[in-house]
């Protein structure tokens, strides 16, 4: 028995040793030291296991418990250390050694030969406690100073941004703009459009603007012929040039440039002799009073009140063969002495006539469209009109101007001869980019124009280019210090504007898909200085509130302030494509004369051949240029930088309601629908825009979706069919004097001529569909946000 008893401990020891080695070999991590397999450790196996068992029995190891077999062993202490297999983990799915081996201090805890020391354990705990305390205090300090030095979102979108904008804009100086303007006007004599384009590109690049490039298109231009057009009186045989001077070699030498560029681009050409009929402004009422004859006639037409293309379409339908176009001096400011001045007009609705609706890129099909109307159209001066109707040049009595008009019973037969040539020429756009930091795929387009060598030589383009260049200079000074806007700003200098906004149309058609999706706003610098008495702002309904704020802020910095004048009306220039084909919100600041604003609209369709000194006469110190630059710049910066686009959805609904006010027939159903649109817009603005503008409630993905909705709001108001010269975007009125939808106004005029309400029914349908589309759009936006329950804070 003694021998057997002596062998039991050895057998038990061997079992323990084998069990330990088996588990350890199976579960050892690859990175563990090899000394765990050394035979020197076998002698301490029982001591190691005993230490472990004691720790497992401590209260801290509550995941282990003894089963019924253990309890039995406790009653027999002499064999308790032999039955190792009776101890099993109750809550851990892993074996005892395996779980302990996963602890990071497994080796250090169980491979020491020296016994554990309580003072050492106390020191370790003290070190851990001190380290934790130091880290906690350090974390508090870091958080405090980080919060102190990094302003909140509310500060960033408020005071900080306004301060940043002012820092950028204060570097814009009138003297710099004046210098740039004078440098540009020296280039207009160039016969090649590329010289001016190269100058602009070089200048923008030197300022630091990124990726400045030429974008060229080969387009069909209608240019002046080798000799000036003429008008002859059949009764006397007298021949006159468009400026009223007799057809003589001497007159041709003294004003050859003026005579050549007094023409209507894309008019029919040839010779026509017929009776002149005075149609005044050529609207429906004027044509109803006109006594038409069976033969082809020549219309004596005043520019203004309605788009020229629309009036020409009416005359063409009425059977006229030619048009003598002029501006009545009574419609011009008293200070303007333009009786002998000639002008140019374009009959091109927009883009390259040979590629209507698609870009003029290599390989495009070219249509043969040398003229865009069957009418022979010739602009003439007021002095020539006075000679044709045998009226004295001075018609002012007692400070009252008498309009030019042909006596009712007088008959005038004239012969008109028009000579123009059509050629393919290259039109160049200059485009530069400033990439955005957080939303580089969202664009704010800033558009100016430059001189096209084949067109008239007015100087408004130099003002436009000098202003955009001044803003680029100020912006890039800040960019060089590490700042960037959130959204991308695209700077464009368009070519071919005088011929029907050809450069901007072709670029827009070329990149249509990208622009439809990504463009947020268009800022126009087409013709910023047209007078010096009144700041006149044009803005989309969604941007009017922002423009009013900027006007008021600018006014507060000056001693003399005038009432803010902001409206959504049709404007001349390269914004046309972006408003009418892409539905992009647009802003334009310009200085006008009071009398020009009070007179007939659409006089700006005439391009007068002004000298280089005219702009400097209106703004000799270039303070107006500086104001336009800063106003436009602040709007650009705010749209490019605000987390939520500064657009107002409710203003669109209010504009729609205002356009239906008054004594208008057939609008009852439209008013009911407009009321529902306003309700949806109010709900959208309060439920979605208000929280998004609060940094505490702002959720990035919701802000992005909200901005996508805001930038596309106006697209619902693009209609397919409109009269020639009318905007497809019906949110824009014909002028500041009319508040009706332009297509409803035209349909009412059309009914006077045809005595039929078919046209007005079509127009009502277009307006109804637009309002309904906008209402559905807002409602769909609300539904999308309501469905995103996981986004709510």
Automatic annotation (TrEMBL):
<keyword id="KW-1133">Transmembrane helix</keyword>
<keyword id="KW-0472">Membrane</keyword>
<dbReference type="InterPro" id="IPR039373">
    <property type="entry name" value="Peptidase_M28B"/>
</dbReference>
<protein>
    <submittedName>
        <fullName>N-acetylated alpha-linked acidic dipeptidase like 2</fullName>
    </submittedName>
</protein>
<feature type="region of interest" description="Disordered">
    <location>
        <begin position="1"/>
        <end position="38"/>
    </location>
</feature>
<feature type="transmembrane region" description="Helical">
    <location>
        <begin position="125"/>
        <end position="146"/>
    </location>
</feature>
<dbReference type="InterPro" id="IPR036757">
    <property type="entry name" value="TFR-like_dimer_dom_sf"/>
</dbReference>
<keyword id="KW-0812">Transmembrane</keyword>
<dbReference type="InterPro" id="IPR046450">
    <property type="entry name" value="PA_dom_sf"/>
</dbReference>
């Amino acid at each position: 028995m003694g021998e057997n008893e002596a062998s039991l401990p050895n057998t038990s020891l061997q079992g323990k040793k084998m069990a330990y080695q088996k588990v350890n070999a199976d579960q050892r991590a690859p990175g563990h030291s090899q000394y765990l397999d050394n035979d020197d450790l076998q002698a301490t196996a029982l001591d190691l296991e005993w230490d472990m068992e004691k720790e497992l029995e401590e209260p801290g190891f509550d995941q282990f418990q003894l089963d019924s077999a253990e309890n039995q062993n406790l009653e027999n202490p002499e064999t308790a250390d032999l039955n190792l297999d009776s101890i099993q983990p109750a809550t851990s799915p892993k074996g005892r050694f395996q779980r302990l081996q996963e602890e990071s201090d497994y080796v250090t805890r169980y491979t020491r030969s020296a016994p554990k020391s309580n003072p050492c354990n106390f020191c370790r705990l003290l070190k851990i406690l001190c380290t934790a305390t130091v880290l906690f205090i350090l974390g508090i300090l870091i958080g405090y100073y980080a919060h102190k030095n990094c302003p909140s979102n509310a500060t960033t979108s408020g005071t900080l941004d306004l301060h940043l904008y002012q820092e950028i804009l204060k570097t814009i100086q009138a003297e710099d703009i004046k210098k740039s303007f004078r440098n540009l006007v020296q280039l207009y004599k160039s016969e090649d459009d590329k010289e001016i384009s190269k100058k602009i590109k070089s200048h923008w690049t030197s300022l630091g603007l990124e990726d400045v490039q030429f974008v060229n298109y080969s387009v069909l231009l209608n240019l002046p012929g080798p000799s000036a057009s003429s008008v002859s009186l059949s009764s006397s045989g007298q021949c006159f040039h468009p400026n009223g001077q007799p057809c003589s070699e001497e007159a041709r030498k003294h004003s050859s440039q003026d005579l050549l560029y007094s023409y209507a681009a894309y008019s029919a050409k040839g010779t026509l002799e017929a009776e002149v009929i005075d149609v005044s402004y050529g609207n429906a009422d004027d044509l109803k009073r006109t006594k038409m004859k069976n033969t082809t006639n020549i219309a004596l037409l005043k520019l203004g009140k309605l788009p020229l293309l629309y009036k020409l379409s009416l005359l063409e339908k009425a059977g006229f063969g030619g048009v003598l176009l002029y501006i009545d001096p009574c419609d011009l400011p008293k200070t303007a002495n333009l009786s002998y001045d000639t002008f140019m007009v374009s009959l091109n609705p927009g883009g390259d006539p040979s590629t209507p609706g698609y870009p003029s890129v290599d390989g495009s099909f070219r249509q043969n469209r040398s003229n865009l109307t069957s009418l022979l159209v010739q602009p003439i001066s007021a002095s020539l009109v006075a000679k044709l109707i045998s009226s004295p040049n001075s018609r002012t009595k007692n400070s009252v101007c008498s309009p030019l008009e042909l006596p009712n019973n007088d008959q005038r037969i004239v012969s008109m001869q028009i000579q123009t040539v059509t050629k393919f020429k290259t039109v160049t756009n200059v485009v530069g980019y400033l990439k955005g930091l957080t939303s580089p795929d969202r664009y704010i387009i800033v558009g100016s124009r430059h001189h096209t060598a084949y067109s008239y030589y007015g100087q408004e383009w130099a003002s436009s280019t000098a202003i955009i260049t001044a803003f680029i200079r100020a912006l890039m000074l800040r960019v060089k210090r590490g700042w960037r806007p959130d959204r991308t700003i695209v700077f464009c200098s368009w070519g071919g504007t005088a011929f029907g906004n050809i450069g901007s149309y072709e670029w827009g058609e070329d990149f249509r898909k990208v622009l439809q999706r990504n463009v947020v706003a268009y800022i126009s610098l087409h013709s910023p200085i047209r007078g010096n008495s009144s700041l006149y702002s044009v803005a989309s309904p969604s941007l009017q509130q922002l423009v009013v704020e900027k006007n008021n802020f600018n006014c507060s910095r000056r001693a003399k302030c005038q009432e803010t004048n902001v409206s959504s009306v049709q404007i001349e220039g390269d914004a046309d494509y972006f408003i009418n084909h892409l539905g992009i919100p647009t802003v334009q600041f310009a200085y006008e004369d009071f009398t020009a604003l009070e007179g007939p609209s659409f006089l700006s369709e005439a391009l007068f051949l002004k000298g280089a000194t005219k702009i400097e006469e209106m703004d000799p110190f270039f303070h107006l240029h500086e104001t336009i630059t800063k106003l436009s710049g602040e709007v650009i910066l705010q749209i490019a930088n605000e987390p939520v686009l500064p657009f107002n959805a409710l203003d669109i609904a209010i504009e729609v309601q205002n356009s239906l006010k008054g004594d208008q027939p057939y609008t009852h159903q439209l008013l009911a629908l407009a009321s529902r649109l306003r309700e949806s817009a109010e709900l959208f603005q309060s439920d979605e825009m208000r929280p998004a503008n609060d940094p505490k409630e702002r959720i990035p993905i919701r802000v992005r979706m909200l901005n996508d909705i805001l930038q596309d709001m106006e697209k619902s108001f693009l209609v397919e069919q409109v009269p020639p010269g009318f905007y497809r975007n019906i949110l824009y009125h014909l002028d500041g004097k009319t508040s009706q939808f332009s297509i409803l106004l035209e349909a009412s005029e059309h009914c006077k001529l045809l005595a039929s309400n078919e046209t007005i029914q079509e127009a009502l349908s277009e307006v109804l569909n637009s309002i309904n589309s906008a209402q559905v759009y807002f409602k769909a936006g609300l539904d999308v946000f309501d469905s995103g329950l996981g986004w709510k804070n």
